UniProtKB/TrEMBL annotation:
Alphabetic keyword roster: DNA-binding, Transcription, Transcription regulation
PANTHER family: TRANSCRIPTIONAL REGULATOR, MARR, TRANSCRIPTIONAL REPRESSOR OF EMRAB OPERON
Provenance organism: Sediminicola luteus
Domain HTH marR-type: 16-149
Name of the protein in question: MarR family winged helix-turn-helix transcriptional regulator
Length: 203
């Protein structure tokens, strides 16, 4: 028990524990900002997250199965959220896929309006990053990208769309390289949510 990450004495001499506690604090800020926006429009946080995801991602990702993986919650929970949003007229169901039992989600005009009001919920967090030196920001981003990929490889994070797991990504001795863009990638070029992401076989 003394070795718990959340024991302040354990944190004193362990930088990894300090980082994890820091990430937990930031996740709390994320939840607070999301809740504040959700209350303003009369929706739950997960409903806001679904709407924002659908607004900015391709249609084949906007179905119950993928959304459950994306947000690490059960399909029934996603289905319940969609049912409420459908009744409110902020999403519509598209049954045009080959399997007519499944459907994807589209925003209605009312849903797009809500996204316009809520998609900036994390801006206060982004604003705090402006005071950090660019080199430090780039180092932080590099570490986060690699951590996200490792968590996915370990089965803890179910979905990732970062370059490291993409079929177009190649690591050379001197640089990272994207075969789709046909160019080397700087650390700042690495994407965490790439629209062109295709999972690498065996990744």
């Amino acid at each position: 028990m003394d070795k718990s990450i959340f024991n302040p004495r354990e944190q004193e001499d362990n930088i990894s524990s300090k980082i994890i506690v820091g990430l937990e604090r930031i996740s709390e800020v994320f939840k607070i900002l999301l809740w504040d926006k959700a209350k303003l429009v009369g929706l739950s946080p997960i409903q806001i997250q679904i709407l924002i995801f659908v607004a900015f991602h391709k249609q084949e990702l906007c179905n119950v199965s993928h959304l459950a993986k994306e947000f690490n919650i059960t399909k029934p929970t996603i289905s319940d959220a969609i049912k409420v949003m459908d009744k409110k007229g902020i999403i519509s169901k598209d049954f045009s896929s080959v399997d007519n039992r499944s459907y994807s989600i589209r925003l209605t005009k009312a849903g797009s309006k809500i996204v316009a009001e809520t998609a900036n919920f994390a801006d206060p967090l982004k604003a705090r990053l402006t005071g950090i030196e660019p080199a430090n920001l780039e180092s932080l981003f590099d570490s986060l990208g690699k951590l996200i990929y490792q968590l996915n490889q370990n089965g803890i994070l179910t979905v990732q769309r970062t370059c490291y797991g993409c079929k177009f990504y190649k690591k050379t001795e001197t640089t990272d390289f994207c075969n789709m863009l046909n160019k080397p990638l700087l650390n700042s070029d690495i994407r965490l949510d790439c629209p062109e992401f295709i999972e690498r076989a065996g990744s």
